[in-house]
Amino acid sequence: MKLINLVCITFMVLLANSCSISQQKKPDTDMKDLMIRISEIEIDFQSLEEYKAILKEEAKASVLLEPGVISIFPMFQKDNPTQVRILEIYANREAYKSHLETPHFLKYKTTTLKMVKSLRLVDMEAIDTDTMHEIFNKLIKDKN
Prior knowledge:
Elements: H1 2-20, E1 35-43, H2 48-65, E2 69-77, E3 80-90, H3 93-99, H4 103-112, E4 116-124, H5 129-143
């Protein structure tokens, strides 16, 4: 089970960063300063489609508008779509704090509050930051 989780996280990082690379210059990021989090969210089934639309809009705005947001990559469990997971990677804790004050995050938080049945924020620590550089470089090369 732990191997599956590690593979899933690696895959999420790859996908998240392929989606998050924008024309905008990102701040120089020291990999040891990264703030990595997985948000585990359970959504009320009746609100699921509306929630996903709002979350998709918020994730896109965060990645495109905030230089310190490296990844906001939302997904849901195939067999249980009310179980949403978000891979969040920020350049540092300050970038995360700044993210919490943006209009798009505040809109997401206030409009989805009644849709969320449970929320658990799991702070993570990268095991191999050297390889993360290679992953990101590979994504950039593959796009060109």
